C-alpha cells in the first residue's frame, strides 16, 4: 500500500503476508491460553498493567454516556472523522473532507465497528508524504464487509484511521485487542484437517491464500494436518489424546462435505466413549472451509460458498447447534450426516461420478446426464415417523437468530448410552410409522436446507439448521421428461410440496428403507454407503458449528 493512501479496503492476499503485520501463526496479542504463544503478531507494545474491566468502563475524559474514551479526530481516506470507543465497539462520525481530497466527501465510514465484527487491530508508523510531518500513525482495524447484494457473503477488509498521536493510536489498538480477548467464544487454537485430494484439488491453495490469513489476523494458532487417504480424517480426530483435545477449541475441515463428515464422525465417536474425553469433545465446534466439489455444509451454514466468509465466521467464534442424522445400516455399521442422504438418482449419480473423479467437479454434470438418460427407478418400501413440529405455522426459511432453531439447546450427551449412540433401528419399535411401497426415482432425507451451487435456495428451502426434523422427499417413478422438469426446478425453488404430482414431501424424524429387486445405492453427504437397507434418525442440535446462520 502506498504511504500516502489510507484505505478501507479489502485485504489482498499479499497484505496478509506483510511481515510488519504478521510475524508467525502462533504469535498474537489475542492468544492468551497457550503459554508457548508469543505476543507481537501485530507488533503492539506490551500492555500496561491495567485491569481489563477498567478498559471497558468509562475512563476520565470520556464526555458522553456509553463512551469509554474521549473523542479523537482521525482521517480515513482523506475524510476527517470523530471517533470514540464504547463498550460495543468503535464509533465513527464523519466531519469534513480536506480541500485537497474532495473525493473524500463520497466516502461514508460505518457508524460503528462492533468489537464482535473486529478480527484484530494494530498500530503502525507511516512516514508522511509532507516534509513538515515526520510520521503518520495508522490505527488499522481488521474487520469484514458484507457484499451489497448478498449480505451473507463477507470479505475481510481493513479500516485505516490516520492520526498523528502515536501514543493514543497505540493505546486504542491495545484496548481493542484486550476487549477481543475477553470474548470467550473466539477460538484460539484450532486443528485444521486439509484434504488435498477433494474437489478441484485446490485445498492447499485455498487454505494458504484465503483461510490462513484470516486466522493469522485473528491470532488463532492452527495445527494443520493433511489427509493421506479416505477415513484418515476420522483417524486423526479419534487419535487425539485428552490433553490435545483440551487444547483445541474446534476442528476445521478444508475440503468437501465428505471430509467434514469424517471429522464429525470422529468427534461423535469420541463423545460415544464418554469419560473426560467425551465431555471435552461435546464442547468442540466444527468448521468447514469449502474446498470440495459441492460444499453443501458450508453453503447451508453461511448462505454462500465463500471461503473468506467461512473463515471469518470461525475466527469470530460464531456458534450454532446443528442437527445430525444417524444412519444405521443392516450390517450394523453406522454413519452420521448433516445435509442429505439420497437413494436412487443421487446415489447412482454419485457412484458414476466417483469413477470420473479425475475430471474434477465437472464429473457431476456428466454423471447427472448419464444417470438421467438411464432413467432407472427402484422398487422399495419406505417407512417414516411423521412429525408436525411447526404447529401449523407457515414454514419459514432458516436465518440467523431463527426462532424455529432458537429454542434448541445443543445436546451435550456423552457416553455409549447417549441417544445418538443408540441405533436408529430402536425407533422402529415406536408407534406411528407410515409406510409407502412403490417404485421411486429418488428418495432423499434432507437434514438442513442443503444449499449448493446447484440449488442456491436449498433442496429443502424450509429446512432448518436445528429443528429436529428431516424432510423426506419421495420422487415416484415418472418419465425422463417429467423428471428433467423436476430437476430443472430445483436450482430456482428447491423441492416444494405440491409442485409436481409425482413428488411427495413429508416432515419426519426417522426413515427406514427396505430395497426390493434391483438396487441403487445411498449417498450420504457425498459419500457412498456400503449397505442399502438403512434406518435414519435425526438428533436435534447434536453438533456445534462455527456459524450463525444465514444473515
Ligand atoms: N489424501 C487422500 N487421498 C484420497 N482420498 C482422500 C484423501 N483424503 C481424503 N480422501 C477422501 O476423499 C473423499 C472426498 O473428499 P471431499 O469430500 O473432501 O471432496 P469432494 O468429494 O470432492 O467434495 P464434496 O463432498 O463437497 O462433493 C472423501 O471420501 C475422503 O475420505
From TrEMBL:
Residues annotated as domain DAGKc: 185-331
InterPro entries assigned: ATP-NAD_kinase_N, CERK_C, Diacylglycerol_kinase_cat_dom, Lipid_Phosphate_FormReg, NAD/diacylglycerol_kinase_sf
Organism domain of life: Eukaryota
GO BP annotations, alphabetical order: ceramide metabolic process
Gene Ontology MF term list: ceramide kinase activity
Pfam families reported in the protein's UniProt record: CERK_C (PF19280), DAGK_cat (PF00781)
UniProt region (Disordered), positions on chain: 27-69
Biased composition (Polar residues): 54-69
GO CC terms, sorted: membrane
Protein name according to UniProt: DAGKc domain-containing protein
Provenance organism: Coccomyxa viridis
Amino acid at each position: 500500500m502506498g504511504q500516502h493512501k489510507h484505505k478501507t479496503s479489502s485485504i489482498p492476499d499479499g497484505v496478509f503476508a506483510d511481515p510488519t503485520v504478521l510475524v508467525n501463526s502462533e504469535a498474537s496479542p489475542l492468544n492468551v491460553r497457550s503459554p508457548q504463544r508469543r505476543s507481537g503478531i501485530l507488533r503492539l507494545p506490551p500492555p500496561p498493567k491495567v485491569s481489563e474491566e477498567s478498559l471497558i468502563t468509562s475512563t476520565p475524559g470520556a464526555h458522553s454516556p456509553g463512551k469509554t474514551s474521549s473523542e479523537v479526530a482521525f482521517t480515513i481516506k482523506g475524510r476527517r472523522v470523530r471517533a470514540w470507543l464504547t463498550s460495543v465497539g468503535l464509533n465513527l462520525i464523519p466531519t469534513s473532507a480536506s480541500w485537497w481530497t474532495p473525493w473524500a466527501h463520497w466516502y461514508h465510514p460505518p457508524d460503528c465497528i462492533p468489537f464482535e465484527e473486529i478480527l484484530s487491530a494494530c498500530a503502525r508508523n507511516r512516514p508522511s508524504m509532507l516534509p513538515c510531518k515526520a510520521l503518520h500513525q495508522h490505527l488499522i482495524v481488521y474487520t469484514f464487509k458484507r457484499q451489497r447484494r448478498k449480505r451473507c457473503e463477507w470479505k475481510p477488509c481493513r479500516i485505516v484511521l490516520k492520526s498523528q498521536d502515536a501514543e493514543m493510536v497505540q493505546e486504542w489498538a491495545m484496548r481493542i485487542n484486550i476487549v477481543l480477548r475477553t470474548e470467550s467464544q473466539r477460538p484460539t487454537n484450532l486443528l485444521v484437517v486439509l484434504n488435498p485430494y477433494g474437489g478441484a484439488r485446490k485445498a492447499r491453495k485455498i487454505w494458504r491464500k484465503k483461510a490462513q490469513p484470516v486466522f493469522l489476523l485473528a491470532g488463532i494458532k492452527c495445527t494443520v494436518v493433511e489427509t493421506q487417504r479416505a477415513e484418515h480424517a476420522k483417524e486423526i480426530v479419534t487419535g487425539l489424546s485428552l490433553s490435545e483435545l483440551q487444547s483445541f477449541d474446534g476442528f476445521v475441515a478444508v475440503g468437501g462435505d465428505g471430509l467434514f463428515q469424517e471429522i464429525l464422525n470422529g468427534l461423535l465417536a469420541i463423545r460415544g466413549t464418554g469419560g473426560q474425553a467425551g465431555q471435552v469433545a461435546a464442547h468442540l465446534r466444527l468448521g468447514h472451509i469449502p474446498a470440495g466439489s459441492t460444499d453443501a455444509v458450508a453453503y447451508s451454514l453461511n448462505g454462500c460458498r465463500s471461503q473468506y466468509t467461512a473463515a471469518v465466521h470461525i475466527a469470530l467464534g460464531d456458534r450454532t447447534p446443528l442437527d445430525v442424522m444417524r444412519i444405521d445400516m443392516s450390517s450394523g455399521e453406522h454413519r452420521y450426516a448433516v445435509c442429505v442422504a439420497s437413494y436412487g438418482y443421487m446415489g447412482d449419480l454419485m457412484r458414476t461420478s466417483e469413477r470420473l473423479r479425475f475430471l474434477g467437479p465437472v464429473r457431476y454434470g456428466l454423471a447427472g446426464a448419464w444417470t438421467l438418460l438411464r432413467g432407472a427407478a427402484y422398487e422399495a418400501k419406505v417407512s417414516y415417523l411423521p412429525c408436525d413440529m411447526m404447529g401449523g405455522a407457515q414454514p419459514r426459511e432458516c436465518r440467523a437468530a431463527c426462532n424455529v432453531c432458537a429454542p434448541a439447546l445443543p445436546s451435550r450427551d456423552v457416553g455409549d448410552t447417549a441417544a445418538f449412540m443408540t441405533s436408529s433401528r430402536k425407533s422402529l419399535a415406536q408407534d406411528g410409522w407410515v409406510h409407502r411401497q412403490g417404485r421411486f426415482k429418488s428418495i432423499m432425507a434432507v437434514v438442513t436446507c442443503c444449499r449448493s451451487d446447484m440449488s442456491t435456495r436449498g433442496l429443502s428451502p424450509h429446512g432448518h439448521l436445528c429443528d429436529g426434523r428431516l424432510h423426506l422427499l419421495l420422487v415416484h417413478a415418472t418419465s425422463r421428461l417429467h423428471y428433467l422438469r423436476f430437476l430443472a426446478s430445483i436450482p430456482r425453488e428447491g423441492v416444494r410440496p405440491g409442485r409436481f404430482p409425482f413428488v411427495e414431501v413429508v416432515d419426519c424424524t426417522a426413515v427406514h428403507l427396505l430395497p426390493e429387486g434391483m438396487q441403487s445405492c445411498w449417498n450420504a453427504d457425498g459419500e457412498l454407503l456400503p449397505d442399502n437397507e438403512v434406518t435414519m434418525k435425526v438428533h436435534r442440535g447434536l453438533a456445534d458449528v462455527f456459524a450463525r446462520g444465514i444473515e
